[in-house]
Amino acid sequence: QWNLLCERSYISALVQSMYFVGYLFGSFLSGTVSDAFGRKITLTVSVALQAAAFIGASFVTSHIALIILIFFAGLSLASSIACQYTLIIEMIGPDHRTIAGIINELFWKAGWLLIILVAYFIRDWRTFMLIGAAPGLAILLFWKWIFESPRWLLTKGRLDEAHEILVNFGGKSKEQPLDKNSLRQLIERIRESQVKREGEVTKRHTQLDMVRTPKMRKFTLVMAINW
């Protein structure tokens, strides 16, 4: 394909590299975007972009177009990974977050293993790209049942929406029915506490804080090596 031999052999490596460049950009941007627009909308846009990038890549006729689409595939994948993890953790209490994170990672690892199996039987890269779009399209089918993070809604002052989502989860049992009024009062107290803390905070954190101090630079380096 495209005579990727001799002096053009670098193009193959460039395509793979651009995927990880996109992944890097997605890792940095996803947090800011999801904080601004919400976990659900960011996740939805990310998986839609991912599916579109893979579908487009399967029909490209030039390596330049492929490089661009692979970049967006990496960007959207990083964004969707970060966003869905945040959405899960924000819905789980502190006592169960560790196990929830582990279970979430098990599904991702199972997916990576499945990709290896699919690649073994599907040798045509264009067909493989189309298959890569399937998970994103599947998630979009369940968009209606994906709920926004109540924690994020609280930070935006959207108390009614947060209350509605939490009410849908109900009480712990029939013997302990959910008291909607008490829940509403709790939500309002939490929001009041948030507003008070926001008024006291004068510094806004950015990605630069990851390398601002020696300790944070150490943590960032360890995480980078781990990934």
TrEMBL record:
Protein name per its UniProtKB record: Major facilitator superfamily (MFS) profile domain-containing protein
Keywords from the UniProt entry: Membrane, Transmembrane, Transmembrane helix
Coiled coil stretches, renumbered: none
Domain Major facilitator superfamily (MFS) profile positions: 1-227
Membrane topology: Multi-pass membrane protein
Listed transmembrane segments: 12-29, 41-60, 66-87, 99-122, 128-147
Subcellular localization(s) per the UniProt record: Membrane
Presence of keyword Membrane: yes
Pfam families attached to this UniProt entry: Sugar_tr
InterPro entries according to UniProt: MFS_dom, MFS_sugar_transport-like, MFS_trans_sf, Sugar_transporter_CS
Gene Ontology molecular-function annotations: transmembrane transporter activity
Major subcellular site: membrane
Family annotation (PROSITE patterns): MFS (PS50850), SUGAR_TRANSPORT_1 (PS00216)
GO CC terms: membrane
Keyword flag Transferase: no
